[in-house]
Specification:
The chain is of the alpha/beta class. It contains 11 helices and 19 strands. The two termini are about 20 Å apart.
């Protein structure tokens, strides 16, 4: 095996999307932002499409354009861009990437590029239904949809969709969920009253795709579930797609009373074996996983010994036979008993989204179960 590697199971991604698609009559947009949640942008996108997704979504426009330039022909939506990214907007319109619009300045920017290119740009209008993040505020919504209707009548844009995002879908039954659905339905009504006829209304993220069929509308947008990680307590039939592992770089026998790693926060209590693992916080291993992060070596679980360093961590394995080069698994699917990304999230008080997306470029991506 390689020094460090994130093994990505493309068959798992394909199967996860197929499973999500089976739960809904709506179309499926697989969200592949942030380099496919750390799994690889193009391989993840290709596997998701093979599983039945008909749309792909990215936050950053550059990723959507990169997919188009790589030969991806599916519908693409991108939603996070600033006034300084006019060249990026130009590329998006040129490459038939749908853009989210939440304000008049964004609409004006898209219209300008559409005129420059002599093309009709495709836009999705985002309404803020209660997350107070991206999206048009409800007070400004009528003015925005009126301006969009005017530009659509002029042939400059096509209002393809209306969309929003949940704040609490990962807490089924939370009172904000019904309020957001009502707010979204009302916003769609305002848009339709202004003369818009969006072909896709979309609100459901992974959690809503799994637990809220009433929020599916025309399109669902699963993200983390595509990669086999459930946003709610139930795992459903999702299969985690990433395994993070490294080859043991050094194995040595030490005496009791030896301080381990910076600050000697860990001290050996007996004669024992220490295993040096060449993964550290520069690779995405959380530093606050020091003396907390679980690992799997030769069929047994252990916890990191002492502080996470920039390039390496240490594991006290007692008397377990280990040799240099043996695989050390930080997390995987859990099917063999190894820790999962959720175990790491629990250990350090975060979410599994962060655990997989923070794995850095020094870690080689190795693809199995399909074409990369």
């Amino acid at each position: 095996m390689l020094r460090t590697e994130a093994v990505i199971d493309l068959a798992a991604i394909k199967g996860n999307v197929a499973s999500l698609k089976a739960r809904t009559s709506a179309e499926v947009m697989a969200v592949v932002k942030a380099d496919g949640y750390g799994h690889g942008l193009l391989p993840a996108a290709t596997a998701a499409l093979a599983g039945g997704a008909t749309w792909l979504g990215t936050a950053i426009v550059d990723e959507a354009v990169a997919l188009r330039r790589s030969g991806i022909g599916a519908r693409l939506l991108s939603w996070l861009w600033t006034p300084e990214e006019i060249a990026t907007v130009h590329a998006a319109v040129e490459h038939d990437v749908d853009l989210s619009v939440s304000s008049r300045w964004q609409l004006d920017a898209v219209v300008e590029q559409a005129r420059t290119l002599g093309r009709t740009a495709r836009v999705h209008l985002k309404i803020d239904t209660g997350l107070s993040r991206n999206g048009c505020y409800v007070d400004d919504w009528p003015d925005l949809v009126a301006a969009v209707a005017k530009s659509e009548a002029a042939g400059e844009i096509e209002a393809v969709g209306v969309w929003s995002h949940f704040a609490y879908a990962d807490a089924p039954g939370h009172p904000t969920i019904a309020k957001q659905i009502d707010a979204f339905t009302a916003a769609v009504g305002v848009a339709e009253h202004a003369g818009l006829r969006p072909s896709v209304r979309h609100l459901a993220n992974s959690a809503a795709t799994l637990t809220l069929p009433e929020a599916h509308f025309d399109l669902v947008r699963p993200g983390i579930a595509v990669y086999g990680l459930s946003p709610v307590d139930e795992q459903f039939d999702l299969v985690p797609a990433m395994t993070l592992r490294a080859a043991a770089a050094l194995v040595k026998r030490v005496h009791a009373g030896e301080g381990v790693s910076y600050g000697h926060e860990y001290t050996t209590t007996r004669d024992t074996t220490l295993v040096l693992v060449p993964l550290g916080y520069a690779d995405g291993v959380p530093r606050h996983a020091s003396s907390k992060g679980p690992v799997w070596i030769n069929g047994e679980r252990f916890t990191l010994a002492g502080r996470v360093c920039m390039d390496q961590v240490i594991v006290d394995v007692g008397d377990l036979p280990v040799s240099a080069g043996d695989p050390v698994v930080l997390f995987g699917s859990g099917r063999e008993g190894e820790p999962t990304a959720q175990d790491w999230a629990d250990a350090v008080g975060t979410i599994h989204y962060e655990i997989v997306t923070r794995i850095g470029p020094r870690v080689s991506r190795v693809y199995v179960g399909g074409d990369a």
